[in-house]
Write a structure and sequence with these properties.
By secondary structure, the chain is α/β, with parallel strands linked by helices. It is built from twelve helices and seven strands. The protein folds into two domains: 41-247, P-loop containing nucleotide triphosphate hydrolases (Rossmann fold, 3-Layer(aba) Sandwich), CATH 3.40.50; 260-312, no CATH class. It has a seven-stranded parallel sheet with strand order 3-2-4-1-5-6-7, sandwiched between helices. Helix 1 crosses helix 2, helix 2 crosses helix 3 (30-37) and helix 2 (13-24) packs antiparallel against helix 6. It is globular and about 65 Å long.
Length: 317
């Protein structure tokens, strides 16, 4: 395993792919891999691209890859697709749109499924981003499956979040939803050659007036990603936000919040594994009959499982 990790850290594409697959499948080697990768990470700029389905996120990322390559950057891409209900894998629509970069040694593209996550990102998305960071990627783009009121997990991973909106698709209503505006560092009105683009720009600017006084007020940019219009300006604003995070206390605070979320996620996952094991030992026909007859209750049973889990769990360094 160490040899495989070393090859990945040296940029070997096949080794990176294998390492991510091992972690995504929650192998017994996941903890070893992530512990080894972590000290090498922290250098990449993680950029989240989210927005309504049909907002042109994939095309936008495709053009941003091109812009990053022109600047000499080594690029990683995680395209989060819906999980297939049949195979459990990712439906690879987003990756197909970026196919022209697939053979470029400076670009690594990985499709990942949501795996039922209500926040729009699976747990392994964070780990894959950290692996790409550790393996020498200067920029890592994460394209989400499509934003909704619950799909705001991207802000827990990304340094910079670009929210793509598009005229004529009800985005004037979408942006009003709780949590959507709050996740954006940069607002992108894509397909801005359509009718109604000025209307949505005005509505977004009206909402942003409420944020005046903050150290960073999200800029509103117009793009036509399919033609490459406005992409360079977007790339420049992403760099401006990166510089802002490096010089403003908000950058450090954001990292601290993300680390807190990460520790909590690991705790929840590990505790879930332990309690699931204890539940398997407790569950029998007699207990289920008691629950069915109201002789005990789920809260008492769950409390006993938690108590036994904590008592029987050895401490680790």
């Amino acid at each position: 395993m160490q040899e495989l990790i070393n090859k990945a850290l040296n940029g070997n594409v096949r080794s990176i792919a294998r390492i991510i697959s091992i972690v995504e499948n929650e192998s017994q080697f996941t903890e070893e891999i992530m512990k080894t990768m972590y000290p090498h990470s922290g250098n990449a700029h993680i950029i989240g691209v989210t927005g309504s389905p049909g907002a042109g996120k994939s095309t936008l990322v495709d053009k941003l890859i091109e812009s990053s390559k022109a600047d000499g950057k080594n690029v990683g891409v995680i395209a989060v697709d819906p999980t297939s209900p049949f195979s459990g894998g990712a439906i690879l629509a987003d990756r197909i749109r970026m196919q022209r970069h697939a053979v470029d040694p400076a670009v690594y593209i990985r499709s990942m499924g949501t795996r039922g996550s209500l926040g729009g990102l699976s747990r392994s998305t964070y780990e894959a981003a950290l692996i790409l960071d550790a393996c020498g990627k200067d920029v890592v783009f994460i394209e989400t499956v499509g934003v909704g009121q619950s799909e705001v997990d991207i802000m827990k991973i990304a340094d910079t979040v670009c929210l793509a909106l598009v005229p004529g698709m009800g985005d004037d209503i979408q942006i009003m939803k709780a949590g959507i505006m709050e996740i954006a560092d940069i607002l992108v009105i894509n397909k801005s050659d359509r009718d109604g683009s000025e209307k949505i720009v005005a509505e977004v600017q009206t909402m942003l007036d409420l944020l005046k006084g903050k150290n960073w007020v999200p800029p509103v940019l117009k793009t036509v990603a399919e033609k490459g219009t406005g992409v360079k300006e977007l790339s420049n604003k992403i760099l401006c936000h990166k510089e802002f995070l490096q010089t403003d206390p908000e950058g450090r605070n954001r990292k601290l919040r993300q680390l807190t979320v990460e520790i909590e996620a690991i705790l929840q996952r590990e505790l879930a594994k332990l309690t699931e094991h204890q539940w398997g030992q407790h569950k029998d026909e007699q207990l289920m009959e008691k629950l069915l007859n109201r002789e005990t209750d789920p809260y008492t049973v769950a409390g006993k499982i938690l108590e036994d889990t904590l008592l029987n769990t050895p401490t680790r360094d």
